[in-house]
Amino acid sequence: MRVFREKLQFSNIYTPWRIWFSFFCAGCVATSADYFLDDIKNLPEGIKDKLMQIMTARGTVTDFNISQLLHPGIQLLDLQCCQVSDLALQQICCPRLKTLLLDGCQRITSEGVITLVSSCPSLQKFILENCVGVTDEAVRALAHNCRDLEVLCLRGCSTIGDGALLALAENCRLLHTVLLSGTQVTDVGITGLVTGLCSNTLHELQVARCPNLTDATVTAVFKNCPKLKRFVFTDCPHITDRLWVPLEDFLGRSKIQDVTWTVY
Q1: Are 2 and 81 found together in one domain?
Q2: How many domains does the chain have?
Q3: Would you call 48 exposed, middle or buried from its count of C-beta atoms within 10 A (0-12, 13-18, 19+)?
């Protein structure tokens, strides 16, 4: 591609991006994106979006090339197949970004998330599943900067605790889906969340494999979340069968669609 462009320039033939890009499909450019970063940087937003879609599916977006692919108007970014670190997050300055998927990006830490959320205030859906380097500090920053947050997944973030939930409770009134399985949250954090700003918007709560939860969590959730549709609390060893009678009564009166639990 570079050789072809040099021949055209040598022949004094003007080739704007619309012409040279027509010779090469987006897939071909995406395959060798790192060799053409200067060209990609100046492409229109629509073509950048197409390249980003191809490269994220292939897992080829990196700390090195992400800044050339981004633009201020981007609204969805799926990096779950990519080997990115905090350095990539620190380059994302997209005020209209609404959805960010970072499932399994284990090189991500709180430092990167804190920088990111200060530049992306419009986030509504943030998936951080199995990002084990993310702590309460990052979620506190998220809650303070992204108050329109609706969906948050922290499954497998093994150090997340009550501090994260209390910050969400105080700042995020639109939250409807919170996935916390495999974290260190306790009754204090869950009770704070379900009595906070999102108590009337919460539709789904998952707290499977949370070893610190007791019957108090289940009681607080059912008491304070009238619009709850799905509640999962399997493999929580301190939740007992004493809940069975009040749980049956609640399920008979509510419109909840899915409750999954384990009784020890």
Answers
A1: no
A2: 2
A3: buried
